Hints:
By secondary structure, the protein is α/β, with parallel strands linked by helices. The protein has 12 helices and 8 strands.
Amino acid sequence: MSNRLENIFQSSSPKTKLVSYFVGCYPDPDLSFELIKQAIDNGVSILEIGYCTSEASAEGPIIKKAHDHVLENNFTLKDTIKLVKKIRDYNSDVGIVLMGYIANLYKYPIPNFVEDIKKAGADAVLVVDAPHELKEENILRENLNKNELSLIKLVAPTTDEKRLKDIIKISSGFLYQVTVTGTTGQKSANESTVKNFIDKIKEISNIPVCTGFGIKTPENAKKMANTGPSGVIVGSTFVKYIQDNLEDKNLPQNLGKLISSFVKEL
């Protein structure tokens, strides 16, 4: 497991960490970096940086639109890894998780990808479409373990107990608890369902749990924080804010204010 992630979750402040998702290089690498700097300066504990694919099957229309924009402008996974390096040079404490799909890593190929993200200063990888039975996921996990990087796994309300235990056994860093079924940014989560699921995970393991999908407002974030996770994950809300305000010269600063409004509730 990445020491940096361990330190983040051991820190008592803030009690619940804000994990924010950004589409890497959206709308372009330079502005993406400025936006992420403001996120860090306004209290984000962990960044999930999405690398883009045309097959973004877990993404709702907001994030899919950002993926499409990045691909149309020919920014690649290599560009996203360069962005990670700039972020790490800017801040040595924030957690950085690269998030996306297995096909990109297979083409890279996987050992080179892990080597490059280690050099860039990333802490972990989350692959949305790679169950632990998949051969490529096993290759990725072996390479990450060798390099002391974490593999973040997704669990959903539909995950049965045996599978949950299997996933927890191979996860490190934190567990990404999907609060709703479906794609990102589409539905809101039910607090009692979320709390019950977190309690179930805590009975099995002390791995940190971060709750995501369906958290749209600072009030939502506060309610989710009260269900007992180590962190709450917000993605579509921030990506939509960027999309809706691309003409704003003060977009990074204003995004920072929005992020700060979430952090204050945690």
